[in-house]
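Q: What residues go here?
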């Protein structure tokens, strides 16, 4: 049965800012089953400890590499700011939860600061537990499912002093940390994420050296880093499975980020897409989610060949023994997927100069580009390409046997403008892509998480790039009772803004309210 579905934008009058009447800008009629979300699909928002908590040295917290970096190098942060106070969520977490609740979000992804729990070494700081207990208790009271990331870039400084991700001992430290989290919070947390975006941590932190810990080991550092991340992730998974899963009945996954790649030259077709995807997403996903485990074959072959040409005795990509392969393979109950943007890709035919400085990008032998028509956000890397999210989900489904996926981040930056139609369009179009991937392609997507609920410290961009402010979108669907029937992203009125923070409102409105809102709209 064809049911009328209406996508609409509702501009809610705001106190102390512009106010407009509701405008219905799209009205289409199509098969609702293509655009509805499954009943048990969950909508949520995501944050990370260093970006929102503040309280950088309170209650026994130790320093993380981001504390060290921002204090030593304010010159390397776009606006010279840091996360010392940030959004002060450490003291104002109730406001955050109120916003989540008002919005109608069903899950909240946040990360734990490892340095609050283990400030200086392997001795636990019991005071560090309190904040997370309070946060978790409030989320549970409000019926919001906690999704907890163990490490979102902010490695404790003491772990870094031992070499961070490059030290094989990292695995032991991380396992202890994970086990401590399960023991302390496992009765309250059912969805765990070990790492956030290890691609970024390894490439920016240990290869290019552009983000903390600023280690410049191009062509080797990123691969050793990734190897230890995979081992640490698998150790955390194994610990849960053996010691906690029976009682706690939760899930453990990992969050990976990737662009999708479209072939620039149609003749290169799926080969070039697979090559590019394997050098980004597959680097971490293939060892965990593929049938046979190990790094993608294209990485093994290329890096081995280049290492040979460079006269090295062994490949720059660490080898996995059968035992290691087996340990890592299958070590996740779901994939957390962060998607923001896509690129065109073509094969790089240029001859390799083995005396040049290698990097993972060079090893991949791809050249990437953008389409001039893609709209760009404030962030220079962020172009809106909703089709890429759809195609990435389909790629994941085909490559990894339709594993469960939670979209753990998706969002759009600006400077904090009052009018953010670009963000509205971005969310709308990306949600449509997700719905299509689920309903038409049968991708196993369990949830969608907006980045973010609150404007926050955007790493090296400080507070100069904002992912939340003034978002107000309604994306509504009229459809059958067995589907969620309304999804909306609307602006949080500034009156709510008690702590001078901006919150994203991404709400489900009852259909009756929606109808009321549409009365007086310019169309229909
Ligand atoms: C990170 C977030 C970051 C967001 C926007 C993601 O890569 O996980 O911490 O704020 O992108 O740049």
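A:
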């Amino acid at each position: 049965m064809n049911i009328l579905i209406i996508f609409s934008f509702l501009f809610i009058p705001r106190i102390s800012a512009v106010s407009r009447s509701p405008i219905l800008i799209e009205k289409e009629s199509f098969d609702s089953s293509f655009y509805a979300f499954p009943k048990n699909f969950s909508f949520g928002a995501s944050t990370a400890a260093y970006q929102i908590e503040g309280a950088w040295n309170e209650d026994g917290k130790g320093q993380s590499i981001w504390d060290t970096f921002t204090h030593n190098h304010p010159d390397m942060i776009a606006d010279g700011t840091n996360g010392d106070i940030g959004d002060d969520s450490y003291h104002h977490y109730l406001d955050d939860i109120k916003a989540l609740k008002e919005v109608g979000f069903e899950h909240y992804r946040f990360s734990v600061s490892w340095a609050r729990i283990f400030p200086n070494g392997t001795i636990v700081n019991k005071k560090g537990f309190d904040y997370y207990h309070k946060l978790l208790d409030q989320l549970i009271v409000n019926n919001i499912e906690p999704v907890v990331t163990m490490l979102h870039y902010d490695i404790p400084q003491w772990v870094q002093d031992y070499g961070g991700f490059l030290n094989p001992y990292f695995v032991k430290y991380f396992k202890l940390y994970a086990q401590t989290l399960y023991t302390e919070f496992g009765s309250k947390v059912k969805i765990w994420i070990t790492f956030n975006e290890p691609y970024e941590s390894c490439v920016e932190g240990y290869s290019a050296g552009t983000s903390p810990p600023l280690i410049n080991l191009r062509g080797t550092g990123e691969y050793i880093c990734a190897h230890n991340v995979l081992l640490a992730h698998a150790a955390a998974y194994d610990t849960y499975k053996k010691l906690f899963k029976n009682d706690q009945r939760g899930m453990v996954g990992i969050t990976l980020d990737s662009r999708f790649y479209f072939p620039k030259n149609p003749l290169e077709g799926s080969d070039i897409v697979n090559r590019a995807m394997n050098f980004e997403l597959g680097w971490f996903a293939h060892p965990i989610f593929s049938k046979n485990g190990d790094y993608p074959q294209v990485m093994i072959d290329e890096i081995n060949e280049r290492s040979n040409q460079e006269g090295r005795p062994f490949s720059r990509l660490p080898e996995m023994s059968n035992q290691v392969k087996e340990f890592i393979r299958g070590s996740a109950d779901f994939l957390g997927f962060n998607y923001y943007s896509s690129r065109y890709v073509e094969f790089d035919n240029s001859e390799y100069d083995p005396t040049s400085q290698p990097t993972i990008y060079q090893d991949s032998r791809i050249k990437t580009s953008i389409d001039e028509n893609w709209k760009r956000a404030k962030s220079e890397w962020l172009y809106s390409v909703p089709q890429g999210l759809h195609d990435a989900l389909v790629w994941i489904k085909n490559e990894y046997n339709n594993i469960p996926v939670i979209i753990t981040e998706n969002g759009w930056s600006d400077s904090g403008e009052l009018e953010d139609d670009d963000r509205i369009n971005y969310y709308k179009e990306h949600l449509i892509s997700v719905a299509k991937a689920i309903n038409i392609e049968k991708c196993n997507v369990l949830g969608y998480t907006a980045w973010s609920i609150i404007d926050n410290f955007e790493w090296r961009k400080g507070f100069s790039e904002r992912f939340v402010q003034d978002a107000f979108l309604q994306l509504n669907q009229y459809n059958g009772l067995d589907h969620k029937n309304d999804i909306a992203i609307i602006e949080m009125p500034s009156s709510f803004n008690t702590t001078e923070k901006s919150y994203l409102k991404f709400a489900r409105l009852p259909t009756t309210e929606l109808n009321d809102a549409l009365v007086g709209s310019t169309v229909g």
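A: Context that may help when evaluating the design: DSSP finds 17 helices and 18 strands in the chain. Residues 405 and 445 are 5 Å apart (CA to CA).
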